[in-house]
Amino acid sequence: MGFFTTAAGNYDRHIGRYGPALAPELIAAAAIRPGDHVLDVGCGPGALTAALLRHGARVSAIDPSEPFATACAERNPDADVQVGAAEALPFAAATFDAALAQLVLNFMADAEAGVRELARVTKPGGTVAAAVWDYGDGMTILRTFWDAAKTIDPEAGDESQMRYCTPDTLGALWSAFDDARVTEAVVRASYDGFEDLWAPLESGVAPSGAFTVSVSPERRAQLKREFRSRLGVTDDPFELTARAWVVSGRRP
């Protein structure tokens, strides 16, 4: 996941700008209560961590990207933040009241192992929950980006091809939990204009940014024009919507 070793600010300006709006949706789905001890797995620069702290939770957080974990710790000094992977969490069994994973499940090297680890460190009866984008239809910026990318490279990778980004696959992954369910959450993000949206892609952040910097300057200019045209936006401020699937269940 080298495309997540960039500076945290690049992620903040790209998909990270949706994180603060999505975090309360995940917290609500997981029924987090003030005082709960919650683990934020794949915390990134800390959008969910911050929301959990505001909610009154006690928070531990972990991310495999050192720049992201450092940013999360600096922004959330009241949280215990570590560097590490979901598949090998450095916590004792039954430590947390809940374990949450926002926008990381489908980037885990082994999602099934990662979910088992989330369950292991959660107390019996505690909640394990995650949110992933609806890459196929509903996450406007990414769906439009990949549709534009395919006009210059029909073989361009597409995040909708990753596992665990549909209600059925998420439900199957959560089949061992009690009261498992998948709901949707639609959030919004604001942009000052198209250049505000485009600039972080040039940093190589996330799969979309990695694709952007991998093509020649001529094809990148073509991609930029096609992307802007498909979005139908100008240099004036605008908003885009993004749909996420939220899965939750209780550890038996």
UniProtKB/TrEMBL annotation:
SUPFAM superfamilies noted in UniProt: S-adenosyl-L-methionine-dependent methyltransferases
UniProt-listed InterPro entries: Diverse_substrate_MTase (IPR051052), Methyltransf_11 (IPR013216), SAM-dependent_MTases_sf (IPR029063)
Residue ranges annotated for the Methyltransferase type domain, each copy included: 39-129
Key words, A-Z: Methyltransferase, Transferase
Pfam families: Methyltransf_11 (PF08241)
GO molecular function: S-adenosylmethionine-dependent methyltransferase activity
GO BP terms: methylation
PANTHER family: METHYLTRANSF_11 DOMAIN-CONTAINING PROTEIN, METHYLTRANSFERASE TYPE 11 DOMAIN-CONTAINING PROTEIN
Family the entry assigns: Belongs to the methyltransferase superfamily.
Name listed for the protein in its UniProt record: Class I SAM-dependent methyltransferase
Native source species: Solirubrobacter phytolaccae
Lineage, broadest ranks: Bacteria, Bacillati, Actinomycetota, Thermoleophilia, Solirubrobacterales
